[in-house]
Design goal:
The complex is a heterodimer of chains A (about 525) and B (about 375). Chain A contains 21 helices and two strands. With about 525 residues, chain A is an all-alpha fold. Chain B has 15 helices and four strands. In chain B, about 45% of the residues are buried. The chains are: A mainly alpha (about 525), B mainly alpha (about 375).
Chain lengths: ~525, ~375
């Protein structure tokens, strides 16, 4: 096996030079008859009637041209005839990509390397081989290697092919799978031996070798693919959990403190999303476009304040009168949520979307085939910061001490001159503001619509119920669990049955722990 | 408590009269007004109106069950749409099968199965060929489902808002499942295009009249059943659970069993309501069993006046009447109105219409025991 590898590697090197040689050949061969001596000459020759002369010019331009030629070519193309345009097109494509490959932006170099694999001109192999050892960026180098592999996979030499297939397998290149499947032939389906003697007759030993290499590569790539998709699922689960966590933290604090179930909590989230939308529109209308990218930084406090102020208003006008009547509060806040949803529908229409700022688009590549989008990373970071902030607020400040005191024993706190009603009002506003933040974060991964909050409200209630009341850790663990399970079950059960399954799990879980994961220990029979 | 008992016993004769009066009106007067006068007479009740009332009265049956569990026992279920839906789908499935080859595709299978390329009738559809089995299933399936769910929930002492949230999640899950095509329940479009029930054509006014009368009978029976339950010793325990579950527990009763009983009864009534609703309306879709309709059902009871059976009936008919008028004329406004109703009922008239009438008239004997709304804060919530 090892010997075979070495032999293959040797062939790869040989094949590489053969192909490279072949690439250089056309540029030298025509020189005998009509060799253009300079780039200027070649540019003139491009318009020649003689196909050979034109071809030679094209080859020379490709081999020696650079970005400086592009404007000239573009000008020629604009007023050239059809044959000229046809001749110029590949030259321009190649030169553009060649320039990009030398760019200082890693992203440009990478896309150039990826594009080159599809251009089909042998010379790109020379360029790529030349660029590979000098490349510093890991992912650009990866793409260069992948492109080299893809080009060699199309070579005529079976040995080169087989080596390229093996190399692509080592690279776990998803892009190569279609080409590899073609090479692997009818036996591409795993576990099935190649059908010998069917159709075109016996495959030659070289072909068999190539097919075998391709099959092995596919297997490797697919194993890798299942790993990467597992990691991505996990990541999506965590980012969903973060949104849930932001929602549920507010809910749990309010519920733990006041025993109030706020059904309009999802609508606070919606308010936050619309506040983000309005901030965006404001930036568009009032400020120079250069500043547009920073709107999101302002949208974060805006959405927090918008939802928080509305929460304050709701507390003062409605919730205040309903303390100690949790079921009635539930119904009344449901009414508020209906009004808010319909209000948003009337004011904003059904579908508005927020453009994520450019610094949150794209993603961070951590492994082959695994890209973590910045917007989801941002949401996770936001949630983490919020959790830390809440922890600090609750356990390290005087205000937090009062909140916790009221949570544990309202009457005793009142006796000790803690303004319980004020604590209630501000906590409610704070919890609502958190939902607003969640809404702001949600605009990064979805549309802004009036029914936005409804999609999350039941899930976040489940988090509160499962996590237990009045404990930060319970909420965190439960939202991670429910959000993660949601995404984990999605591929195998489908989103719907996943949700049903989670409900069943929660009901069964409550058999074992009726008051949630974490509870405040005390001597009461029931709370 | 003792005082209210005496009051209630004293009231029995007084309450009987309105019951018979309303029953007489709904059962005899309305159908007669539908049949006898000509269409131009001002007293004439059109087929459409009668049908509409049939629908409302079906809802009233559900409201009775909901009142039993919420108004009397203090358990707020936000998942009664599911039990309603189970009853409705049971009858709907039978009517789908009885369409037979009259369907658009001329297949013995329901139309949506033909679209979804289902070749054979799924096994769980087979019993619904029989009308009586379907009627039995309409009540027994929700009953059994409620028994299992309630057993798990009450055994682990899930109560208060926890129970409400769990039942709401149940409604959401049911809605999701009924929406799927592969569950073979018609997907988003639900079951519709029914032709016959018990061999009677549903398009005939006579059939609709018969369904209306059946609904009134069922409502009467449900009312009597609920009244019997709340007058019995069990009913007293239920009210006691509402007022202080702990004391009931420490007095040697098992609240879980009583709660399970009342939950199952109210689920059965919801199933019955669903079964009566579908043939009159002609369609059942998942949209009618989800989270929103389930919580709307609660508001019927709240508006009418919870803790009184008459209030539940009144609320179901009143809110739905308001809904059909408002959604006809101002469809945009209905959610505002409904939301406002939720808030107003809770804030301003927690005893609903019945409470309001009592206050205005003063003649209707008020119940001293209250209905949990005017309980002192400390008793209901130690926090």
């Amino acid at each position: 096996m090892k010997l075979l590898r070495i032999a293959m590697l040797g062939m790869l090197v040989l094949g590489g030079t053969v192909v490279a040689g072949a690439a250089e050949e056309p540029t030298t061969a025509p020189s005998a008859q009509a060799a253009p001596v300079s780039l200027e000459q070649a540019l003139k020759d491009l318009a020649s009637e003689d196909a050979a002369v034109q071809d030679a010019a094209v080859q020379l331009l490709i081999a020696r041209g650079d970005a400086g030629l592009l404007p000239k070519l573009e000008a020629m193309r604009a007023d050239g005839d059809r044959s000229l345009r046809m001749a110029i097109k590949p030259v321009m494509d190649l030169l553009k990509n060649k320039t990009k490959l030398a760019s200082s932006e890693a992203e440009d170099r990478r896309s150039a390397a990826a594009d080159m694999a599809t251009l089909g001109h042998p010379i790109v192999l020379v360029w790529l081989e030349a660029a590979r050892p000098m490349e510093q960026d890991r992912w650009v180098r990866y793409t260069i290697e992948e492109s080299i592999g893809l080009i060699k996979l199309a070579s005529d030499d079976p040995a080169v092919k087989a080596a390229a297939a093996t190399k692509l397998g080592e690279l776990h290149s998803q892009n190569a799978v279609p080409a590899l499947k073609e090479l692997a032939g009818p036996a591409a389906i795993p576990g099935q031996e190649p059908a010998i003697g069917s159709g075109a007759g016996e495959p030659s030993p070289e072909q068999a070798l190539v097919a075998k290499a391709a099959r092995e590569a596919i297997e490797r790539i697919e194993t890798w693919g299942s790993w990467t998709s597992a990691i991505e699922t996990l990541f999506r689960g965590i980012s969903l959990s973060s949104v849930l966590l932001l929602m549920a933290l507010g809910l749990a604090i309010i519920f733990g403190l006041m025993g109030v179930i706020n059904m309009a909590h999802g609508e606070f989230m919606m308010l936050g999303a619309y506040a983000t939308f309005l901030t965006q529109e404001g930036f568009k209308a009032l400020l120079p476009p250069g500043l547009f990218d920073y709107y999101f930084l302002l949208a974060l406090p805006c959405s927090f304040l918008a939802a928080g102020l509305f929460g304050l208003l709701l507390e003062a006008s409605l919730i205040r009168f309903l303390y100690g009547r949790p079921l009635e509060t539930l119904l009344a806040t449901w009414g508020v949520s209906l009004i808010l949803i319909q209000g948003a529908r009337v004011v904003f229409g059904d579908l508005t979307s927020v453009v994520a700022p450019s610094w949150l688009s794209g993603g961070m590549q951590v492994m082959v085939g695994v890209q973590l989008p910045y917007n989801r990373l941002f949401i996770i970071a936001l949630a983490s910061v919020c959790v830390l902030g809440i922890y600090f607020l609750l356990f390290r400040t005087g205000v937090g001490l009062k909140v916790r005191a009221v949570m544990q024993n309202r009457n005793m706190s009142a006796c000790l001159a803690i303004p319980t009603r004020k604590v209630d009002a501000y906590t409610f506003a704070f919890g609502s503001g958190l939902a607003g933040l969640a809404g702001c974060a949600l605009t990064l991964i979805g549309n802004v619509e009036p029914g936005l909050g409804q999609n999350y409200i039941v899930d976040s209630f489940m988090v509160v119920v499962t996590g237990g009341v009045g404990k930060l850790a319970g909420t965190i663990v439960a939202s991670l669990g429910i959000g993660g399970l949601n995404k984990l079950l999605e591929p195998s059960f489908g989103a719907v049955y996943g949700k049903v399954f989670i409900l069943v799990l929660v009901v069964l879980f409550l058999q074992w722990r009726p008051s949630g994961l974490f509870t405040i220990k005390g001597r009461h029979v029931e709370s | 408590m003792a005082e209210s008992e005496i009051m209630e016993q004293g009231r029995e004769s007084k309450e009987g009269l309105p019951f018979w009066l309303v029953g007489f009106f709904l059962l005899i007067v309305l159908p007669l007004l539908n049949v006898l006068p000509g269409a131009e007479s001002p007293l004439h009740v059109s087929d459409f109106t009668l049908n509409l009332f049939g629908k409302f009265l079906a809802f009233a049956i559900l409201a009775l069950g909901l009142d039993l569990i919420w108004g009397y026992t203090g358990i707020l279920s936000l998942g009664h749409g599911v039990f309603f839906g189970l009853g409705a789908y049971a009858i709907g499935m039978h009517m789908m099968l009885s369409i037979g080859t009259e369907s658009v595709y001329g297949s013995a299978l329901p139309d949506f199965m033909v679209w979804n390329q289902v070749k054979d009738l799924p096994l769980f559809w087979k019993p619904f060929h029989s009308a009586w089995l379907a009627v039995a299933a309409a009540i027994l399936v929700p009953t059994a489902f409620a028994a299992i769910f309630g057993f798990l929930a009450f055994r682990s002492r899930i109560k208060g808002v926890y129970f409400s949230i769990i039942t709401q999640a149940l409604a959401l899950s049911a809605w999701l499942v009924f929406n799927r095509n592969e569950t073979n329940l018609g997907g988003t479009n639900g079951l519709t295009d029914f032709k016959t029930l018990f061999g009677l054509r549903l398009s005939e006014p006579g059939t609709q009249r018969a369904l209306y009368v059946a609904t009134v009978f069922c409502l009467g029976a449900a009312y009597l059943l609920c009244r019997w339950i709340i007058k019995s010793r069990t009913g007293k325990v239920l009210v006691a659970i509402r007022d202080s579950e702990q004391r009931v527990l420490f007095s040697g009763y098992s609240p879980a069993n009583y709660k399970l009983f009342v939950f199952v009864v109210s689920a059965a009534l919801a199933g019955l309501a669903g079964a009566l609703y579908v043939p009159q309306v002609g369609i059942i879709t998942p949209a009618q069993i989800g989270v929103l309709p389930s919580i709307e059902m609660v508001i019927w009871v709240a508006v009418g006046g919870r803790g009184t059976l008459a209030g539940a009936v009144l609320g179901a008919v009143g809110v739905n009447l308001g809904r059909s008028i408002l959604t006809n004329h101002f469809p945009e406004l209905w959610p505002f109105f409904l939301g406002g109703l939720f808030i107003a009922v809770v804030l301003f008239f927690p005893d609903g219409c019945v409470g309001l009438l009592r206050k205005l008239g003063g003649g209707w004997p008020s119940r001293k025991a209250g209905n949990g709304l005017d309980k002192p804060l400390a008793a209901s919530d130690p926090r």
